[in-house]
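In the laboratory, one determines a bound structure by crystallizing the protein with its ligand and collecting diffraction data. In a computational setting the workflow is compressed into a single prediction: the sequence and the ligand go in, and a structural description comes out. We illustrate the idea with 2'-deoxycytidine-5'-monophosphate.
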Amino acid sequence: MTHLQIAIDGPSGSGKSTLAKSVSRILGILYLDTGAMYRACGLKAILSGIAPKDEVKVSEMLKTLDIDIRFADGDQRVFLDGRDVSSEIRKPEVSVAASDISSLPEVRTKMVAMQRQIAESRSVVLDGRDIGSHVLPDAPYKFFLTADPEERAKRRLEELALRGIHTQSYEEVLADIRYRDHQDSTRSFAPLVKMPDAVVIDTTKNTQEQTLQELLQCLPRELFSSAGENREK
Ligand code: DC
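The predicted complex, in structure-token form:
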């Protein structure tokens, strides 16, 4: 059986991870959150006292960077230097550091190699910024999610509150989103870009269920009937 690859790209807060998680459960395939990997890199820089845009120091840091992605019951856990940092990487300061560090080609090359290795070994849905354009350009199913920045900031604030993080106001979250949007889509190496063969879904006014249905409509029926075969053992 050839492996199934579904690519979901879009800016922060467009609803990629919720959607990708639902799709992975329905089809019985793995969900890989690639943003978490850049977040782990950003966290390592913060913990090491390195500016995430300092190419020389980050290059040195990469030599000993130990990121491990583990999956348990369909849930992804991220380990940095042997420690589970899955919650820590969601902090607002790590979001900005992740965006900063992800603009460095050396960082991207390392993360993309890990992502491709995982995607080649099994059926997956990946979400990120460059999945359809760079990581898996031959993926047969590509989606590009969009939503107004104000709506995305509202969602991010709610998500942070659910995690017990109340350190930022709506205005600060919106400013971070605009900063990351600009940086993620204007960097020279593998920027966020909509591919011509990607299906665009504007999630601004959608419920999560509506977005899920829009995506599922684009997949052939036989993928659902083979969901059991795809399921991770
Ligand atoms: O999806 P996220 O918000 O967790 O991603 C954090 C940062 O990582 C984002 O601002 C840009 C970067 N990123 C990237 O450059 N490429 C990806 N495939 C995923 C994330």
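The beta strands are 5-9, 30-33, 67-72, 75-80, 83-84, 124-128, 141-146, 199-202. Keep in mind that any predicted model is a hypothesis to be tested, not a measurement.
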